User: What shape does this take?
Amino acid sequence: MAKNDLKMPLPKLDDLFKDQNERNEDKLEKIMDIALDLIDDFPSHPFKVIDNDDMEQLKQSIMENGVTNPVLVRPKENGRYELISGHRRKFGSQLALKETIPCIVRDLSDNEATIIMVDSNMQQREKILPSEKAFAYKMKLEAMSQQGNRTDLTSGQVVQKFDVTDLIGKDNDESGRQVRRFIRLTYLIPEILEMVDQDRIALSPAVEISFLKESEQLILLDCMQYTLATPSHSQSIKMKNLSKAGKLTKEQIDNIMSEEKPNQIPTMKFNEDRILNVLPTDLEREDIEDYVVNSINYYSSYQNKIKKLLPQNLKEKDVDNFLIQAIRHYSTIYKKKDCQRDEGR
Assistant: This one.
C-alpha cells in the first residue's frame, strides 16, 4: 500500500538561527511605517472604497496631518503585508502621494483576520450598503463556523436553532434572523443587488427574490426594466413559491408584475432604447428623468395644449413619439441657450 505523502512546511533559513525569545518577539504586535506598495488589500474585501467628497477630505487631512490612526496589517510569507483594517486610509494616502503609512503589525490566522476585518469596518463606517453588509456577514459566518456551527441558509428566512448568526447579530445590534436575511442577498445577481443598494428594492422582497434561479432573476430584471416597477413583498413570495414548484415562467413573471399593488404610483411604459437614442450623449443616467420631464414640460407649454405634463387625450401607443419630439425640441432650445451663454462670455 502506497504511503501518504506528508507535506510539512520548511522553516525559513533565518528562523533556523533564531532562539525562542527572538521567535516570540517576531509574533508580538508592533507599530512601524510600511511602504504602501508592500501592502495588499484584503482578499474579496466586501466594503467599497469610493473616491468621493469624503475621500477628498480624508486626502487633505492626510496631506496636512498624516495618518493619525495606524492601519492594521498582518505579515505574509513572501515579505509583503495584508491589510486587515484601514482600506480608506490606505487609498487616501495614495491619493495624497504618500510613500509609507503607519501600521500595526499583528500575527493573525485567516479566520482571525476575517473577523477583525468585518468587525472593524462595521464599527467605523457611518453608512454601510446592504450588499456590503451581506458579504461581510457571510465572510464572518464562514470564519466563525470552522468549529462546526450550523451554516444552512437555504431552507428559508427563519432558522430556529440558535447558531453563530445570533452571535454575529449580537455584535451588530441585529437579530440572528436579520443576519441570515442579509446573507441571502449574496444569492442575487449583481444588477438586482445594486437595485437593493439604491433603495429601489426593499430588503424583504429582495430576500424572497434571492431564492429564484439565476435565469429567473434575469427574466425578472428585464421585466422590471420594461415596466419601470419592482415587485412587492407579496409578489416576490408568489414568484418564489412558483420557482420552488418549478412553474415560474416568463409569462408568470409578467403576469405577477402587471398586478396592481396597493398605493402603487401609476407608471407609463415606453421604449427605453428609442428614448436614449435622442438624449444628449453626455447626459448622466441619474439626470435622465429630470431631463425628460423638463422636455415634456417645455414642449407641452410650447404646444399650448394642456396644463399637465402630457396631453390628456394622448394614447399609450403614442407616448414614445411624443417623448421623442419633446426631447428633440427641448434639446434644440437647450443647445441654443448654451451657445448664447458662450457668446456672452
User: Anything to note?
Assistant: The longest strand covers residues 30-35. The first helix runs from residue 13 to 16. Confidence is low (pLDDT under 50) at residues 1-11, 149-162.
